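User: Quick sanity check before I run a bigger batch. Here is a single chain. Can you write out its predicted 3D structure?
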Amino acid sequence: MSSPPTPAQPESRSPWRSLRHRSMRWWSVANFVSNAGTWMQLTVQNLLVLQITGSAAATGLSMSVQAAPALLMSVLGGAAVDRWPRKLTAAVSQALLAVIAFTTATLVALDRLDMTSLMVLAAVTGVVATVDNPACALLGNDLVPAEDVPSAIGVGALVFNAGRLAGAALAGVTVGFLGTAAAYFANGFSFLFVTAVIPFLRPAAGAVRHVVEKGGKSKRPQPAMTVREGIAFFARRPRLLALAGVTGVSAVFGRNYGLTLAVLVTGPLAGGAGAFGTVSTVLAVGGILGAVLGARLRRPSVRLVGALAVTGALLQVVAGMSPSLAVLLVLVLPMAVVESVSDTAGTAVLQTDPPAHLRGRVLGVWGSIGTVWSLGGPPALGLLMELAGPRGALITGGLIIAASITAGHLLHTRRTQAPVILRQATLETAA
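Assistant: Done. Predicted structure follows.
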């Protein structure tokens, strides 16, 4: 007599489920170290530019120079990630970033760093990042089964925020005792730590494998790995186009809370720098809570991302009408939570929707599009605040986001549910 079948184990919804895989735990530790080092460097970099030039405009220029390669070269970087072995690509890019950090540290220590050298190093960093960002993002996903990818992304968001806080705190101590160059040296060693960990990472059972032969050729027949193929896939994929639309309108007319809420708090609400610091802290706490909630997702969808974006937009509208700082603080927490969950869900869709051999190029296309939003969003929002004030910008921006996403959803629903009308001749023939 056969024994009764063992009941299926319920699917885990723990936000930490990706950490049950050993390689994912090591990758998370490596990312924390790397993020802490990066934020140590970023914390002192603007001060370094000001020391060299005495110009705030030069600080903004250095940031733009580092971001500019993503606008032009992300699609090429994504193609490289698809063509080359993922672990090798990530290890080499991390090692190159370490070399750049050590070079900068040496120039600072020798008092030989001028604005020209700084701009060149920033541009080279931006070029390497066009390969490093998609390589490292996809490498983490390669370590876990598909259903655990949202957890991996949520854990990554938590690691990012924890590294940011640790790096900013360590920067002040390091610079105070050891000088500015020490922050760059620390960042270089953090990249080397990641480089050392990567060779020991192993995919878990059920993980989507990205396997290439020597010379960059896939073991199974696939179309040529061209940039055009990645762009064409993105352009013909309604889900990705819808995700781009939702994310784009949200990025331009919302989300830039560091700008809109700063003006609202210090202007109409008559708060000071301390009050905005409190708002920023609540935003950070909400982001962490949202990352935990987002990590519980198993199969996020573009519809969920859109619904969360509309919810955040409506909260933004109410925040724009806040009569006091206390009311604003009550609204800021759910705004940050919704934004963080939406980001996790959208990233999971973006990184799992394309077939494995196309994911690097799709992320490359997304990188170029996202750079347009990050460069164009703040000026557009600043112009809106000039015309409508901080309250008007929050309210108008929120209404634009909600109306645009709702209209897009209704048009999509109407198109997919439109009845098929048969001609009379066709009906008679069928009869």
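Residues 1-9, 213-223 have pLDDT under 50 and may be disordered.

User: Great, the batch can go ahead then.
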